[in-house]
User: What shape does this take?
Amino acid sequence: MKLMEEANKEAEHKGWCDRELSTNEQTRKEKSEASKTPHAEIDESEALITQLTEQITVLMKAVAELDAAVAKATSICKGGRGYMLRAGAGVFR
Assistant: This one.
């Protein structure tokens, strides 16, 4: 009888251990997957930051070129206007 009781206790304990191992394995899998998600999001964000930084550099260069073109056009217009005023003044005299 005593051997039977011990065998039953061992079987119950083994069942408990098997359930605990299974639960722990599932928890490890879930936590492992959960930890991968933030790392993937960080990688995506870093790639986007790099891409946007490159675009900003290109756009800043384009703006600088436009500013230079506007300054040149303004200078030409001011110079031409003065010439036209001087030339016109001579015509109307």
Observations:
- The longest helix spans residues 2-91.
- Residues 32 and 44 are 19 Å apart (CA to CA).
- The chain is about 95% helix and 0% strand.
- The chain has a mean pLDDT of 85.
